[in-house]
C-alpha cells in the first residue's frame, strides 16, 4: 500500500537499477524481497529516498529529479532514488511514514506538497540544505530515523523511531526578518498539535515554546527547531528542521505518553497528521508574517511561550571590564531583531543575547542596554 519501514524492498532497490522496477512483474519483486536475509535488510536500511508529490505536476517533477540524478548526499552510503508510484502497491511495514495518508490530509498551496521520504537517513536537514537549488520552495524531507541529526551549535539531536523528523525549504528576500522565521515555525508546531487535539475531541496537549527554538510539554523537552540560511542571488535560502517526540518516550517524553496519562480512552497522535497540520498552519502563519510582520503574530506567540514575566539572571561586566556582574531582569517579550526584551530592577530596558556557550539559553545571558 504505502512505502514505509520496509527493509526488504530497500535492499532490493539499492542493488538493482531503478528502471528495473518498471519492467519486473510484481510477483518477481515480492519473491526477491522474501529471499533476503534480515541481516542484509538492516545493513542497507539507509539506502532509499522516495519522491512524491501531491499533484500531477509535482509527481512529474519527482520523475525529472530522479531521471536527471542531480540530488547530492553527504552520507557515505549510496542512496537510491525511487518514485512513490513505483512501490506504493507493495506490502510494507505499517510503522513507516504513511505517505498517502499525509498527502490526503495536506491542504496547502505550496509548503509540504513535494515530499522526499526515507526510512533511515543521516540528516533530513542535510538533504534539503545541500540540494536547495534543485528543490521547489516548500519541499520537505522526512525520515523515520536519523543517524546524524543535530541541534544548535552542532549538538547531536537524538532521533529514534517514533520521532517526527523533517526539514523543508523557505526562501526570503528581507534579511532583517530571517531570524524571526524560527519563531513562526515553532508557533506552527504548537498550533498544529492544538488543532489535531481539537479535531479529535481530546484533551489539549499544551506544548510550549522555550526561546528560541525548543518545545516543551509538562516541563520536559519534546522537540526542537533548527533553521539555517545561506545567501545567494539576492535571496536567503532557509532550511528549517523540526524534531518532535510523538511516540518515543526516550530520551525525555513524548506527546502520546502524556496523552495516555490524561485520557481514559486510548488515543494516539500520528506523525503524518501532525506534519500535514503543521504545513497547513505554517502556510497561513507565514503569509501573515510576510505581509504584516511578526508583530501581528506576537499575541499568539506569547500565549504559547514560557517566558512572559520570567525573571532571569544576566551577566554584565563592571566599569573596569575585568569582572562579570550578575543582575536580575524580567522578560517582557521579543525585540524587533528577535532577541529577548527585558527590564532591569532599576527600570532600564535591555536586550538579552545568549553567550553562545551554554546548552541552556537562560544560563549566561548577556545584557545589552537599549536607548
TrEMBL record:
Residues 100-290 form the BPL/LPL catalytic domain. Pfam families: BPL_C, BPL_LplA_LipB. GO terms for cellular component: cytoplasm. Transmembrane segments: none annotated. Keywords: Ligase. It comes from the Eukaryota. One of its GO terms (molecular function) is biotin--[biotin carboxyl-carrier protein] ligase activity. Belongs to the biotin--protein ligase family. NCBIfam families: birA_ligase. PANTHER family: BIOTIN PROTEIN LIGASE, BIOTIN--PROTEIN LIGASE. This is Biotin--protein ligase 2 isoform X1. It comes from Coffea arabica (Arabian coffee).
